[in-house]
Design a protein that fits this description.
The protein is of the alpha/beta class. 43% of the residues lie in helices and 13% in strands. The chain is built from eight helices and five strands, in the order βαβαβααβαβααα. Strands 3-2-1-4-5 form a five-stranded parallel β-sheet, with helices on both faces. Helix 5 (136-150) links the parallel strand 4 and strand 5. Helix 1 (14-26) crosses helix 6 and helix 6 (165-174) packs across helix 8. The longest helix is centred in the last third of the chain and has 21 residues, at 201-221. It starts with a strand and ends with a helix.
């Protein structure tokens, strides 16, 4: 275990919850920061608070609703019909421009004030849905920028960067929180906890990953 503290960018969804418990395993103390950004599924904030309480992690909620007003996307604008599949020639309309840039920058400011240099985020280039701010190159670039901007030495950890959704479920299982992640998190873009609505992009990715992992787990146990 690292004898330093970590701050997790935490939404209460599958990925960030897995990262929260990953951080609890590897760092001395863990804190969480979550954001209100005008998302239609804003009940994820209350779910994040509940999971943080269960994990005995202090959580700080920041209202950055301005982000949702700057660009057109289906997560913050109820008039836009959500893409169910990724378009071939552009980003899906669930992409909120600058979201991870804002989140990690604000997290770094908060972390600096608390004397924390380790930041944890659940972005993944393997299952990134075409979002450019989930790529490894973006995270590494931002890490350098934050260091320069605040004359600090941050370390941004991305435990899920190179694993797919089935492997993310496997990690949650190894951390002993598979049931919690499955039943108590909110990944659904329509705001339905647990297995969700079943048809939005986030639910499809989550379900396919779970089915794949459970099949692999069963095969292992029967050998």
């Amino acid at each position: 275990m690292n004898n330093e503290d970590a701050l997790v960018v935490f939404s209460g969804g599958q990925d960030s919850t897995t990262c929260l418990f990953w951080a609890k395993k590897y760092f001395r103390r863990v804190f969480a920061i979550t954001f209100i950004y005008g998302q239609k599924h804003v009940n994820e904030v209350e779910i994040a608070k509940a999971i943080a309480a269960k994990a005995d992690v202090d959580i700080y909620v920041v209202d950055v609703s301005l982000i949702g007003k700057l660009g057109a996307n289906s997560l913050t604008d109820a008039s836009i019909v959500m893409d169910r599949e990724k378009p071939a020639d552009t980003f899906p309309n669930t992409f909120v421009p600058g979201r991870n840039l804002f989140f990690l920058s604000i997290a770094a400011i908060y972390a600096r004030e608390k004397g924390i240099r380790h930041l944890v985020t659940g972005v993944s280039q393997t299952d990134y849905s075409g979002y450019p701010d989930c790529r490894d190159a973006f995270v590494k670039s931002l890490n350098v920028t934050l260091d320069l901007a605040m004359d600090a030495q941050f370390a941004i950890h991305t435990p899920l960067m190179w694993i797919d959704k089935s492997q993310t479920w496997e990690l949650a299982d190894k951390l002993g929180v598979l049931d919690l992640v499955r039943h108590e998190t909110l990944t659904c873009y329509n705001g339905i906890p647990g297995d969700g609505c079943g048809h939005c992009p986030a639910c499809k990715l989550r379900r396919e990953g779970l089915e794949k992992y459970l099949k692999i787990k069963t095969e292992r146990e029967t050998k």
